[in-house]
Amino acid sequence: MSNELIREPVVAGSFYPGDASSLTRQIANLFSEAEKPVINGELVGLVCPHAGYIYSGHVAAVGYKLLEGMEFDVVAVISPSHVNYFDGVSVYSGSAYTTPLGKVDIDTELAEMISTGSNIVFKGEIGHDVSSFRGEHALEVQLPFLQIVLGKFKLLPLIMGEQKYSTCEGLAEDLYRVLKDKKALIVASSDLSHFHSSREADRLDHVFIEHFEAFNPRALAQSLDSKECEACGGGPVISAMIYANKLGSPYAKALKYADSASTSGDFSNVVGYLSGAISIE
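User: That's the sequence. What structure does it adopt?
Assistant: Structure tokens below.
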């Protein structure tokens, strides 16, 4: 009997369909309704929302549509932690994540490399665990989209226990150290503002988008700290931006913005969603 440590899905059947055929069909429908964006340069990062697919799937699909026909050596998904608070960044110590679409193998060699000698990243189950009152969803919900559009790929699953700017800088440096010679994609998992009116959400979220497209991660961090904008995954986005800055001349483009009222019909209490692309010249 295998004693492999494999992370089972915890939000299948709630955030997205729990059986493979329904899940495949839903993502196919989302892709069919999404227009493929045009970006400049080489794609190195995506910002994608992580709510239930009925709310944010149409926004996520626009970003993931960019990946059609692409191949990567590894996809690093960076997620905030909604369940556990801990110092630094946890890279999963197991061999795979699973979804109803099957197993996603972890690049265990890269997981070892990024955690070895790092002051920020450590190997563990915290943040990835399924034993708390509800498991972490923000990384898991990205995987079915990636499975459909890329097929087989190696995963580097990273969960930020806290999102200080110094942690973002350290994570970006560690990512650059292990990925600079690879064809790699960073997926930063984040929703934007939470539980405002649609009008207020639009105002807050466009502060985030302005800093993102201006490619100013420090200004974005300052605006998040001062509550001029909101994002539960601001740290993952900032980390991806700093990483891209190390690779070359970076660009960021907002691909699609919406809030939950577009599907719920409730304009009084919404969550903002963004898909965005990060590329280098």
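Residues 59 and 184 are 22 Å apart (CA to CA).
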